[in-house]
Design brief:
Elements: E1 8-14, E2 19-22, E3 28-41, E4 47-59, H1 60-69, E5 75-88, E6 94-107
Parallel strand pairs: 4-6
Antiparallel strand pairs: 1-3, 1-5, 2-3, 3-4, 5-6
Length: 110
């Protein structure tokens, strides 16, 4: 059961071209957003579409794959873990971020 702890799997469309950074020592990091869609029927029987946006970060080899093959609009599947962090913005206000740290990426569609 330990392998299922803090495991996230998402299939969605990339919202923007990934932002790739080269860090000291040659390591890469990729930042991107993925949109997932869901639908349900409301009380009136009308279909309601709902889109959720997810921040995704990938490191090392996974970031290299994203850099080579992933562009805005591409449908991908990612697997990783959910993380939370905070930082102080330029005005000294605390900001909170929830993101998925991707371990694997699968290219879907065309």
């Amino acid at each position: 059961m330990n392998a299922m702890r803090n495991k996230v799997q998402l299939i969605g469309n990339v919202g923007n071209d990934p932002e790739i950074k080269n860090l000291d020592g040659g390591k890469k990091v990729a930042n991107l957003t993925i949109a997932t869609n869901d639908s349900y029927k409301n009380d009136k029987g009308e279909k309601v579409e709902q889109t959720e946006w997810h921040k995704v970060v990938a490191w090392g080899k996974t970031a290299e794959i994203i850099e080579k093959y992933v562009t805005k609009g591409k449908e991908i599947a990612i697997e990783g873990k959910l993380t939370h962090r905070s930082y102080d913005d330029k005005n000294g206000e605390k900001r909170y971020i929830t993101e998925v740290v991707a371990n694997d990426v699968l290219l879907l569609g065309k």
